[in-house]
Amino acid sequence: MQGERKFFNEMLDEAGNPRPAYANLSRWLEDKPLNFLSRKSREAETIFRRLGITFAVYGADEATERLIPFDPIPRIISAAEWRKLSAGIDQRVRALNAFLHDIYHRQEIIKAGRIPADLIIQNDAFLPEMVGYSPARKVYSHIIGTDLVRVSENEFYVLEDNTRTPSGVSYMMENRETMMRMFPELFQAHRVAPVEQYPELLRQTLESVSPDQSRSDVTVCVLTPGIYNSAYFEHAFLADSMGVELVEGPDLFVDEGKVFMRTTREPKQVDVIYRRIDDAFLDPLTFNPDSMLGVPGLFDAYRAGNVTICNAPGTGIADDKAIYAYVPDIIEFYTGQKPILNNVPTWNCSREDDLAYVLDNLEDIVVKEVHGSGGYGMLIGPTATKRQIADFRKILTANPSNYIAQPTLSLSACPTHVASGVAPRHVDLRPFVLIGDQVRITPGGLTRVALKKGSLVVNSSQGGGTKDTWVLED
């Protein structure tokens, strides 16, 4: 069973001794009474509830607004480990942006035979409307969340690239603030790289891709679908932290090819829109005509070079799971280098041989929807029942091109507060990257933790929680 799989313990070595990065934390935990962490967990929950740090769960029978469970034991990454991770992330995001520019222009990677043409052209995430257009600084994906998993002391894998509208950065920041409030003595014992500068760096990044660099007063806004969106707290948090307006579609309008924001005085021209709505809903005149969330005429104003949309429309193809298997080729094609961070080995079920292998091994692998997210629409073979596997086999056979498959990784585990005390639980990591005039990588990111023993599902919508992530400085 899954709970019996061997995994890398990030805190303890094979002899049960604390690894160097965790030495101070281990001693600190040993000195604490049994009920200490339980009391601190309740304190953190009170803080989060007071601040309204919730997320929405669609289709749930119970209340749709939930608190994300917060674990008070930090996850620690050494300075040396972080240097390798940040170098690999930097390489990856630059290559993905080069890939996006290429596929919407000369399509050299297709001509070179490194990626099948139909995988691009027939992909739902590919926007023909973006062909031939170059955004400011040729940056398409300005905010990226790169999901990483660790399987051994020196081996990290990239699980997926979130190049559309990645979420979770507000939880990263609130986790850190809560930890600093509750455990100031722990921070005194560690040199922890800061994350609180993220909003300022985000604003600098957004301002750096303004279409008119001659303007000294750049107007930025955050475009949200509204209060019923699952990440609305984050939208409001980031707008407030950056000191910019949070707007919905009706708050903006287009006049003579430019975008304006309604104010209590007079309309104000908008230079950069950090959008948190999907491509299809951005502009009812260009995309989904039934959209009530977007701004009529926005895409024409964008194509005219009068406003920057971050992330650019059409960036979703760079994190499409069918494209994921080709990212090592993408990196090598555009950088001339081997990937610093490896992909998880992947079977593309649209290929006949791959599909045959997957169908023969459903009990041992993970199958995911190409466009799926949040832990939905997937099969984790080792923890599935025979009935679930049989039902999924029928779904997969009926529409194989909608799925990819990967081996079941033994995710690393970190010390986590559980009912019985402290125990290892599996984790992943989402560092946040900003790309504009330069690449800015926030040290650490959001660690998600599977709170159930043996579980590999870390998504908050599936019962997972979060941890503060500490990158130690030299």
TrEMBL record:
Coiled coil: none annotated. Pfam families: CP_ATPgrasp_2. It comes from the Bacteria. Residues 74-450 form the Circularly permuted ATP-grasp type domain. This is Putative circularly permuted ATP-grasp superfamily protein.
